[in-house]
Write a structure and sequence with these properties.
The complex is a heterotrimer of chains A (499), B (158) and C (321).
Chain A: H1 2-14, H2 17-34, H3 41-53, H4 57-82, H5 91-102, H6 106-140, H7 144-158, H8 166-181, E1 183-184, E2 191-192, H9 206-225, H10 244-266, H11 273-286, H12 299-322, H13 328-338, H14 346-351, H15 353-383, H16 389-407, H17 411-429, H18 435-457, H19 464-467, H20 469-498
Helix pairs in contact in A: 1-15, 2-3, 2-4, 2-15, 3-4, 3-13, 4-5, 4-6, 4-15, 5-6, 5-12, 6-10, 6-12, 6-15, 7-11, 7-18, 7-20, 8-18, 9-16, 9-17, 10-11, 10-12, 11-12
Chain B: H1 12-33, H2 47-68, H3 80-98, H4 103-117, H5 123-144
Helix pairs in contact in B: 1-2, 3-4, 4-5
Chain C: H1 2-19, E1 28-33, H2 40-54, E2 60-65, H3 72-81, E3 88-93, H4 94-102, E4 113-128, H5 136-145, E5 151-154, H6 160-171, E6 180-183, H7 187-195, E7 201-205, H8 206-214, E8 218-223, E9 247-254, H9 260-275, H10 277-286, E10 289-294, H11 295-316
Parallel strand pairs in C: 1-2, 1-3, 5-6, 5-7
Antiparallel strand pairs in C: 3-9, 4-7, 4-8, 4-9, 4-10
Classes of the chains: A mainly alpha (499), B mainly alpha (158), C alpha/beta (321).
Chain lengths: 499, 158, 321
């Protein structure tokens, strides 16, 4: 097979010692910048792109791949260690990951994230090599109505994370939806709820909300309880490394996460957030230890991290086969290609197969490099938590603020971080779940845009959702997920009364 | 965390949240009413705000009802002074960015005041650590990676 | 802290790589890109940075990114922050002209000192390969016949693509306010909608659709520029009898309050830069067309663009007068 031979050639190029060094430097740089909360892989790559200008195309692309994967891993590291997700795709990781880190299981959490990323990246890269032409056909035919179906499904399943009070869970979610309304309406260019503040026109940044609610809110909460009931952070409890049990509990989520991440990532508007949330709720449902969810369940880190990485490889499907940059990172990758006068797209495979497969091979190698470099460093990362608490939380706040300041140095942005931090404190004290608010902000605007695009294409006819098999199926599954718990409960009651 | 035991007296937390939600619903509704531009085809920009504001209003009423039927869980005792120190730290960060105090000064103050919230008394030592941290971050990210961090008097020394 | 040790080790390399470069000239220039890293304005700013430093026209050049609201957040900051400073520049373009109006921006381009238009990109109108419309006249007839059924795909609402769709609809003899334009975030989604045959036609910068056009997945009906794109066999709208002309230009401007001398020296520096072979290489690598225009000609051009964009946005209903 042609693809295989080209891939092998790509590996031969990427495995030269100098190229390996570029990959290693890229991974280190990417991780270093990517750990800043608020600076995700896309911004990391953009900031470091000039560094790669100096190298030859192959070397540059390899370093580029390293920076990309490094940036992504950096985002999950902060999500796990200090509860500050570096990008919206790491929000799901933070939920369980930080709980694990605080319970002394940061080592296994970081390890399952790294290995899961590697496993998912490997499978997804293989998928890219062999399934791309076929997958892209489906991706292109995925219409706005289908996206809407997918988002409704995500909404319905995520509501499983609401905790014990539907009132408080729904309030949190709806507040997220309300925040999502702020800014310029994508379809008409109208500003909504901006109150004349130009900084609000671009809407509320997901990372600002997540860092505010998660990291700043947490610091405030821990401080408020410090005198009465000081929190105990144990850097390492039990094994630093993953135990046999951890492995057993991780491999399933890795594979399922990949199954969500790769195809959804390949969709032009799929993104990385939906697969990470779907993976999280799936693992929660399937886990043999559902009681651990919310307290630090390893499945809740393994699945979303795998989904995140697999979706990253998925975005390369439309980029390389059609020249469609479907994510911010892919758009920057495109810029990376263009600096060498290359235009990704249907012609690229024919005109420049060496480079394409070289890139695929470098992604692969960057992924492996990440694993090699980061596994030994996990011990170091985890020991950061051994810093005395006053300094630890002071450092976390400085870090969280710095990420926000660097991404958007405006008073309005810092002010929002401040306000969200206090809302996070109140929500913690009054027992409101926090994640649904972030989910509402991420999914709300996407769902609205797709719904309205669908209706615009159908000239206002709502039947469009039922006439298309894709959306009809997805909405059907969503309806089932919504009704099933009630039916099951009644069925059980019925059975119980028969006994 | 146990449910509000007092009967007869409404729970002030649930009341506050309920009134707050209804207020936000009203703001959203008002803003949506001011939209001058409608979509020629399909849904307009005001449709989704209407949906969200109705949801918020319903949840607000739900909270009001809850306030009279048991209320929200009562939180454990908190320490408002510690929270106040961090708030002061965040406020000085905001002030530094707003009035050109620069990133390093902001970091220094935020660090020291947060440490104070967690019971540290060695203010000068903490200020020194915060300063060192700020300088290190500034040198690494602003100088080498040309990330634009807000500059103040301390930054101009470099 | 160990963390920072590690960060430093990595960054030391980047520092070495970035600090290399000739140091000949006297000036320290600051360029604001009012958008996130990676976009068109950012790459323009960074290309200027690169060229000014390579040619020795400036000693050091720093690019800052201020994101928000089609660049108007950056513009506002530039107008207040850089007032009277001849060593600061801002990159902007056609998109900002529209964004100022749709976002009801408190600051406008009348408040800065125009220096020069640098580059421009032609927009292209395409249809899916399976479309019944073979020529731009076919499409024009279809728009006239039923404007609602002619669905357009393109970038953000009120942006270049939307404006061209409206201008075209008007020229075709239909009501511009009735144009059925679906705004997609990012070129990728719009392109997918076209390849999937869900829309009638699409508009974007030529570069974005180039490889789809070459492989025959999309059919290019017309380009919006005054002249055909070199080496591309696609007619212009004008020569097809549709009186619409539009270029997505990018320009560089200086702060308000410059003296005539200061303005001239900045213009000279930029002009020298655009004449350099380094700049020619940048244009070639990026696939940009040279649309250099400066001085009074550019002032007049800017004025006419502002009034034209204002008119069309009002007729589409995106701006209420």
């Amino acid at each position: 097979m042609d693809a295989l031979a080209s891939l092998a050639h790509g590996f031969a190029v990427a495995l030269e010692p100098t190229k390996l060094m570029f990959a290693a430097i890229g991974v280190l740089l990417g991780t270093a910048v990517g750990v800043l909360p608020g600076i995700g892989p896309a911004l990391t790559v953009a900031l470091l792109l000039p560094v790669t200008f100096k190298l030859d195309p192959t070397g540059s692309l390899i370093m580029f791949a390293g920076i990309y994967y490094g940036g992504m891993y950096g985002g999950s590291t902060t999500a796990i260690l200090i509860n500050a997700p570096g990008e919206s795709a790491s929000v799901a990781t933070a939920i369980e990951g930080n709980k694990m880190a605080k319970a002394g299981r940061g080592g296994p959490a970081l390890a399952t994230a790294a290995i899961g990323s590697f496993v998912a990246g490997t499978i997804a890269t293989a998928g890219l090599a062999f399934l791309a032409p076929w997958l892209v056909q489906i991706a292109v035919n995925f219409g706005p109505w289908d996206y809407f179906g997918l988002m409704v499904l995500a909404f319905v399943t995520v509501s499983a994370t609401f905790g014990d009070s539907p009132l408080r869970g729904l309030t949190s979610l709806t507040m997220g939806l309300a925040l999502g309304l702020i800014g310029i309406d994508k379809l008409t260019g109208q500003s909504r709820l901006t109150f004349g503040v130009p900084e609000l026109l671009d809407g509320v940044e997901v990372t600002t909300l997540a860092v505010g609610l998660f990291a700043v809110g947490e610091a405030l909460f821990v401080a408020s309880r410090f005198k009465h009931d000081p929190e105990e952070v144990v850097p390492i409890r039990g094994s630093l490394w993953m135990t046999k049990e951890d492995w057993k509990r991780s491999w399933g989520p890795w594979l399922r996460g990949t199954l969500y991440g790769f195809p959804i990532g390949a969709l032009p508007a799929g993104g990385a957030e939906i697969p990470t949330f779907l993976s999280y709720v799936t693992e929660r449902k399937l886990s043999k230890h559902p009681e651990e969810f919310g307290q630090g369940a390893i499945e809740g880190v393994a699945g979303p991290e795998a989904a995140n990485n697999a979706s990253a490889a998925g975005t390369l499907v439309p980029l390389l086969t059609l020249g469609l940059p479907t994510s911010a990172t892919a758009a920057i990758m495109l810029a990376g290609f263009q600096q060498y006068g290359l235009n990704p797209g249907p012609l690229l495979f024919a005109e420049n197969p060496g480079l394409v497969w070289g890139l695929v091979a470098s992604l692969f190698i960057a992924n492996a490099m990440l694993l090699v470099l980061n596994l030994p460093l996990i011990g170091l990362w985890v020991r950061l938590l051994a810093i005395p608490q006053p300094w630890l939380y002071a450092g976390i706040l400085v870090f969280a603020a710095m990420g926000t300041v660097a991404a958007k140095p405006s008073v309005v942005e810092i002010g929002m971080l401040f306000v969200f931090g206090f809302i996070g404190l109140l929500m913690r004290r009054w027992d409101y779940p926090i994640a649904p608010m972030v989910v509402g902000l991420i999914l709300g605007p996407m769902a609205e845009a797709q719904l309205r695009r669908s209706l615009q294409l159908s000239l206002g006819d709502p039947m469009v959702f039922l006439e298309n098999p894709g959306s009809a199926t997805l909405l059907g599954i969503a309806a089932l997920c919504l009704i099933a718990p009630f039916v099951m409960r009644n069925l059980n009651r019925f059975k119980a009364s028969e006994d | 965390m146990k449910p509000q035991a007092l009967r007869g007296r409404p729970d002030w937390r649930a009341l506050t949240v309920g009134i707050g939600l209804i207020a936000i619903a009203a703001i959203i509704e008002r803003d949506a009413g001011q939209q001058t531009i409608t979509a020629t085809y399909g849904m307009g920009p005001a449709a989704m705000p209407h949906v969200v504001s109705v949801m918020l209003a319903v949840l607000g009423i739900g909270h009001l009802i809850t306030a009279f039927l048991g209320g929200l869980p009562v939180p454990d005792e908190g320490d408002p002074i510690a929270v106040g120190w961090i708030a002061l730290g965040l406020a000085s960060l905001l002030g530094c960015i707003a009035f050109g105090g620069g990133f390093i000064l902001a970091t220094t103050l935020l660090f020291a005041l947060t440490a104070r919230a967690f019971g540290r008394r060695a203010l000068f030592a903490d200020l020194a650590i915060g300063l060192a941290l700020g300088v290190a971050i500034h040198l690494l990210f602003a100088k080498i990676l040309t990330l634009s961090l807000p500059a103040g008097p301390i930054e101009r020394l470099f | 802290m160990k963390l920072f040790g590690r960060v430093f080790a990595g960054l030391a390399f980047a520092g070495l790589a970035l600090m290399a470069g000739p140091a000949l000239a006297q000036q320290d220039i600051k360029i604001m890109a009012p958008a996130a890293p990676g976009g068109g304005w950012d790459s323009t700013a960074r290309s200027i940075q690169q060229t000014l430093m390579q040619t020795g026209l400036a000693k050091s050049v720093q690019v800052t990114n201020v994101t928000g609201a089609g660049g108007t957040v950056g513009l506002a900051q530039f107008i207040t922050g850089a007032k009277g400073d001849p060593n600061q520049l801002i990159v902007n373009g056609f998109v900002m002209v529209g964004a100022i109006l749709t976002n009801k921006s408190p600051v406008t381009l009348d408040q800065v000192t125009p220096i020069a238009r640098l580059t421009g990109e032609a927009l292209v109108i395409v249809v899916p390969a399976s479309s019944p419309h073979k020529t731009i006249q076919d499409l024009s007839a279809a728009v006239k016949a039923d404007v609602a059924k002619a669905v357009w795909a393109g970038g953000s609402a009120g942006g270049t693509d939307h404006i061209l769709a409206a201008l075209f609809t008007k020229a075709a003899g239909a009501e511009a306010a009735k144009v059925n334009y679906v705004a997609f975030s990012g070129g990728g989604e719009a392109l997918a909608a076209m390849l999937g045959g869900r829309v009638t036609a699409g508009i974007s910068g030529y570069g974005e659709f180039e490889s789809q056009i070459k492989t025959g997945k999309l059919r290019a009906l017309a380009v919006s520029s005054p002249k055909r794109i070199e080496g591309v066999d696609v007619p212009t709208l004008k020569e097809s009898g549709i009186d619409v002309e539009m270029v997505n230009w990018r320009a560089v401007m200086a702060p308000p309050g410059l003296t005539a001398e200061q303005r001239k020296s900045v213009t000279d520096m930029i002009e020298k830069m655009t004449k350099s072979k380094e700049w020619a290489e940048v244009l070639k690598a990026r696939g940009w067309d040279d649309y250099f225009m400066a001085g009074d000609t550019f002032d007049a051009y800017l004025k006419s663009e502002q009034s034209r964009v204002g008119d069309i946005l009002r007729s589409v209903g995106l701006v209420k007068s």
